[in-house]
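Chapter review: from sequence to fold.
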Amino acid sequence: MRMLKAYKYRIYPTKDQKELIKVIIGACRFVYNWALEQKIKTYEQYKKSISRFDLQRILVHEVKPANEWLKKANSQALLASLVNVESAFTRFFREKKGFPKFKSKKNPVQSYQLPQHYTVDFEKSIVRLPKIGEVKAILHRQFEGTLKTATNSNHFKNLHWKILYQYSCGRWKRTSCKTGILRIYYSGNRCRN
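The token string follows.
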């Protein structure tokens, strides 16, 4: 059985890396707010929703060339912001949760996500991030598994890196007894992660 687990690590970037992280966070916030505005305007004008893929095409071919500073940010982090807008609207319509809000620069917690192209080196205690490079980190827990999404967060001037990974852990088996009750039990090694 495959399971997901996340660990949060403190990172210590240099001054230049901190500035680049701020630029990437600002770019992701800009893309999120732009996409949210586009979705709202499209619905007001045409009573139709614009898809994430249409927003992605507009972002790559129109918005990025018009805003050169967006090229400093990782493109996958920008596309992850579009996914976040889409999931916020899905939650709103399906679960009747609050309407998506614009992201503020004044919020003390700022973050961006990376779906891939980052690595963790436990021996050297570094995390390699695209466009930023190697960043020192305190890797207090080691893990084995497939790297999934990583989130870089700036929480009250402290930088953290949350890594979501997938690992295998034993098996779940189904059996049915004569009374018609379905029993599910766990067999295999205990999870060590």
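Two observations follow directly from the output. The longest strand covers residues 2-12. The longest helix spans residues 15-46.
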